[in-house]
C-alpha cells in the first residue's frame, strides 16, 4: 500500500514539474502574462507541498 501511494505521489510530482517547466519556458517568452505567472505560483506551491509530504513520509520508514 505504501509503495502504491509513493508511486502516485511521484507521478503527481512529475506532472506538476512538467507544468512548471512548460510555464517557465512560456514566461521566458511572455513575461508580462500575469495569468501564466499566477498558474506558475499555483504549480510551484503544489510541487513544494508534494515534496514536503514525500519527505515526511519517507522519514517514517
Radius of gyration: 14 Å
Helicity, as a percent range: over 70%
The largest sheet is: none
- Give the termini distance in whole angstroms: 13 Å
Low-confidence stretches: none
Please state the average pLDDT score: 91
Class from secondary-structure proportions: mainly alpha
The proportion of residues in beta strands is: under 5%
Number of helices: 2
How would you characterize this protein structure?
By secondary structure, the protein is mainly α. The protein contains two helices and no strands. It has helices at residues 2-29, 34-60. Helix 1 packs antiparallel against helix 2 (34-60). The radius of gyration is 14 Å and the shape is elongated.
Task: Please give a quick description of this structure.
This protein is an all-alpha fold and 61 residues long. 90% of the residues lie in helices and 0% in strands.
Q: Which properties best describe this structure?
A:
mainly alpha; elongated; single chain; 61 residues
Question: Which SSEs are present, and which pair or pack?
Answer:
Blueprint: H1 2-29, H2 34-60
Helix pairs in contact: 1-2
Amino acid at each position: 500500500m505504501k509503495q502504491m501511494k509513493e508511486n502516485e505521489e511521484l507521478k503527481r510530482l512529475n506532472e506538476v514539474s512538467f507544468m512548471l517547466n512548460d510555464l517557465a519556458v512560456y514566461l521566458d517568452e511572455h513575461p508580462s502574462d500575469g495569468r501564466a505567472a499566477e498558474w506558475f505560483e499555483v504549480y510551484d506551491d503544489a510541487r513544494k507541498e508534494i515534496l514536503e509530504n514525500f519527505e515526511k513520509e519517507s522519514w517514517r520508514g
